[in-house]
């Protein structure tokens, strides 16, 4: 019987890290091929091809590299893959997942995974996560779900997932909505049907810049004053509470929003921005009047990914439509 074709790419991250000598910190050294040798049962499930596209800590991934990974994945689909799995570091996993999700045009599962314990640690979670990710990528019920993150027995949608713990094994969660699914006795079980997806065209330009600033108590406005002069093409603010900034920031933001798109998200780590609750200067109603877009449930980092991609395909006039996807509870 022909096994389904599954394509796996390794980019680096803790899952691939080892120390060369005791007492030295771990660095990415383990190839995708070597990672696969730790889950021999996969060969009974799929006809697997694996490539090591990078050995990087995920802090050093960038949009250009992610676009090359996307074109690798696209080629795998053309070769007949029924699913793709990306192995990478967990530090930027939520951002990479959102990036791929906005651009993945297929129903075919696109699954990202990593590990919290490095390859040589007792109880390393990489092999279990990788096998789980492959099961999810091969499952028929994973279709039409865009990019998903599989970690520690849970399946998270790219738009919702966040790294919410720096070192714990259970480092990923999807605030408000919870995981989309689970691996139960090696079976892929979803807890809700797939959400409708918004897919963007590939960027036509990649040299534009989007800044991300976080509001903080008593912050000065020096960076805001210089954002336009520095040549930024868009700005995302991690705002207080339901998407708020100080009065002084609001004045500066109004000026910036006349020239480039500005999105305000919540810095709280969970929940949505408001639209119609607070009327004070710097509150969301004031910011909306000043031309700002509110991020809804999108966290500041993912709002930055979305704005960069929207600017890249010159669809900034449709930003509201793409953000509506994440604020639709308010309709
Ligand atoms: N601590 C990270 C990880 O879990 C390192 C990285 O993101 O590359 O993979």
UniProtKB/TrEMBL annotation:
<dbReference type="InterPro" id="IPR027474">
    <property type="entry name" value="L-asparaginase_N"/>
</dbReference>
<comment type="similarity">
    <text>Belongs to the asparaginase 1 family.</text>
</comment>
<feature type="binding site">
    <location>
        <begin position="90"/>
        <end position="91"/>
    </location>
    <ligand>
        <name>substrate</name>
    </ligand>
</feature>
<dbReference type="InterPro" id="IPR006034">
    <property type="entry name" value="Asparaginase/glutaminase-like"/>
</dbReference>
<dbReference type="Pfam" id="PF17763">
    <property type="entry name" value="Asparaginase_C"/>
</dbReference>
<feature type="active site" description="O-isoaspartyl threonine intermediate">
    <location>
        <position position="14"/>
    </location>
</feature>
<feature type="binding site">
    <location>
        <position position="58"/>
    </location>
    <ligand>
        <name>substrate</name>
    </ligand>
</feature>
<dbReference type="InterPro" id="IPR004550">
    <property type="entry name" value="AsnASE_II"/>
</dbReference>
<dbReference type="InterPro" id="IPR040919">
    <property type="entry name" value="Asparaginase_C"/>
</dbReference>
<feature type="domain" description="Asparaginase/glutaminase C-terminal">
    <location>
        <begin position="209"/>
        <end position="317"/>
    </location>
</feature>
<feature type="domain" description="L-asparaginase N-terminal">
    <location>
        <begin position="6"/>
        <end position="193"/>
    </location>
</feature>
<dbReference type="GO" id="GO:0004067">
    <property type="term" value="F:asparaginase activity"/>
</dbReference>
<keyword id="KW-0378">Hydrolase</keyword>
<dbReference type="InterPro" id="IPR036152">
    <property type="entry name" value="Asp/glu_Ase-like_sf"/>
</dbReference>
<dbReference type="InterPro" id="IPR037152">
    <property type="entry name" value="L-asparaginase_N_sf"/>
</dbReference>
<protein>
    <submittedName>
        <fullName>Putative L-asparaginase periplasmic</fullName>
        <ecNumber>3.5.1.1</ecNumber>
    </submittedName>
</protein>
<dbReference type="Pfam" id="PF00710">
    <property type="entry name" value="Asparaginase"/>
</dbReference>
<dbReference type="GO" id="GO:0006528">
    <property type="term" value="P:asparagine metabolic process"/>
</dbReference>
<dbReference type="InterPro" id="IPR027473">
    <property type="entry name" value="L-asparaginase_C"/>
</dbReference>
């Amino acid at each position: 019987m022909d096994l389904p074709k599954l394509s796996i790419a390794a980019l680096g991250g803790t899952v691939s890290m080892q120390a060369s000598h005791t007492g030295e910190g771990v660095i990415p050294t383990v190839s995708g091929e070597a990672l696969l040798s730790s889950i021999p049962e996969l060969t009974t499930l799929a006809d697997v091809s694996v490539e090591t596209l990078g050995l990087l800590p995920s802090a050093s991934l960038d949009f250009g590299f992610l676009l090359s990974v996307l074109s690798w994945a696209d080629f795998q689909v053309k070769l007949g893959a029924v699913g793709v799995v990306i192995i990478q570091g967990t530090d930027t996993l939520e951002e990479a997942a959102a990036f791929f999700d906005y651009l993945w045009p297929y129903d075919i599962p696109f699954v990202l995974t990593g590990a919290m314990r490095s390859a040589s640690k007792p109880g390393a979670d990489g092999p279990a996560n990788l096998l789980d990710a492959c099961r999810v990528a091969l499952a028929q019920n994973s279709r039409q779900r865009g990019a998903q993150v599989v970690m520690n027995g849970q399946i998270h949608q790219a738009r919702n997932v966040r790294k919410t713990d720096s070192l714990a094994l259970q480092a990923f969660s999807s605030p408000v909505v919870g995981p989309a699914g689970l691996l139960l006795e090696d079976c892929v079980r979803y807890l809700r049907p797939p959400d409708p997806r918004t897919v963007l065209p590939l960027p036509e330009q990649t040299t534009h810049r989007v800044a991300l600033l976080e509001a903080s108590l008593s912050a000065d406005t020096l960076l805001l004053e210089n954002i336009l002069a520095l040549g930024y093409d868009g700005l995302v603010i991690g705002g207080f509470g339901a998407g708020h900034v100080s009065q002084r920031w609001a004045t500066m933001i109004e000026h910036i929003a006349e020239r480039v798109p500005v999105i305000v998200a919540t810095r709280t780590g969970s929940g949505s921005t408001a639209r119609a609750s607070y009327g004070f200067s710097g509150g969301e109603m004031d910011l909306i009047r000043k031309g700002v877009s509110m991020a809804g449930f999108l966290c500041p980092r993912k709002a930055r990914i979305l704005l960069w991609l929207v600017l890249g395909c010159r669809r900034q006039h449709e930003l509201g439509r793409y953000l509506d996807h994440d604020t639709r509870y308010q309709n």
